[in-house]
Write a structure and sequence with these properties.
With 220 residues, this protein is an alpha+beta fold. The protein is 17% helix and 28% strand. A hairpin with a 4-residue loop joins strand 6 and strand 7. The ligand Nc1nc2c(c(=O)[nH]1)N[C@H]1C(S)=C(S)[C@@H](COP(=O)(O)O)O[C@H]1N2 binds next to loops.
Length: 220
């Protein structure tokens, strides 16, 4: 049994230790692989399972109450219910996951709506240079607009043929395979396009503002 206070403590401890890692530059090998000569980025280890990482709170989202909003510097701001979102074209994606805590998981089969398709629907203004993801647990993370618009980026609703579980960010999470996995917001509910950058939860706590695993952009 955990009450609110226990959860608060677990969360704080977890956040503090990760922040300390960032300060110390732990896990850095100093041997970038910018040409992607290996499948495994520097300092990573392959895992066969799929670890769960979050702030210690996994929001229980009632499907009827779920919403996805895309707003900010867009010509056509949109809000989707889960039913409407699932009616958008769902495509298949295949990608590797690289987490800053050193695990990588190969060949993940995703299903979901491509970020490019979403962006075509909302019509971002030319001044929109950055995107921030907001999640149901209060988490945020930021990427440059062109990173979000990469062809392998999606809002995933299924993994390995099954609906995405609550522990991994279901019903819908962002997947940005080219960056470390902290940029892939679980339980996403709002995407905000903006002219200026606004660093997210881990980015203000010592993580790198970008997050390229091949350059070991772990910490700032
Ligand atoms: N909403 C939300 N998204 C999040 C996080 C989080 O705490 N909350 N953690 C990030 C981090 S640090 C990682 S490594 C991945 C972990 O995703 P997984 O639990 O599905 O492996 O989610 C990312 N997205
Ligand atoms: Mo992470």
């Amino acid at each position: 049994m955990t009450d609110e206070n226990d959860e608060g403590r677990i969360k704080d401890k977890l956040i503090r230790s990760k922040q300390d890692w960032a300060k110390e530059g732990r896990l850095l090998t100093g041997m970038p692989d910018e040409r992607h000569a290996n499948r495994l980025p520097p300092g990573q280890k392959e895992v066969k399972n799929w670890p769960v990482l979050d702030l210690g709170v996994q929001p229980n989202i009632v499907p009827q109450a779920w919403r996805l909003t895309v707003g900010g510097l867009v010509g056509n701001p949109m809000v989707w219910t889960l039913e409407e979102f699932m009616a958008l074209p769902q495509e298949e994606f295949l990608s590797d996951i690289h987490c800053v805590t050193q695990w990588s998981r190969y060949d993940n089969h995703w299903r979901g709506v491509s970020a490019r398709h979403l962006m075509e629907l909302v019509k971002p203004k030319p001044e929109a240079r950055h995107a921030v993801f907001h999640s149901y647990d209060g988490y945020t993370t930021n990427v440059k607009r062109e990173m979000f618009e990469a062809p392998n980026v999606l809002l995933a609703s299924a993994w390995e043929g099954k609906p995405l579980g609550r522990d991994h960010g279901g019903p819908v999470r962002v997947v940005i395979p080219d960056w470390y996995f902290w940029k892939s917001a679980k339980w996403v509910t709002r995407i905000e396009l903006a002219q200026d950058d606004s660093p997210g939860f881990w980015e203000v706590r010592g993580y790198h503002n970008e997050g390229d695993p091949w350059k070991e952009e772990r910490y700032s």
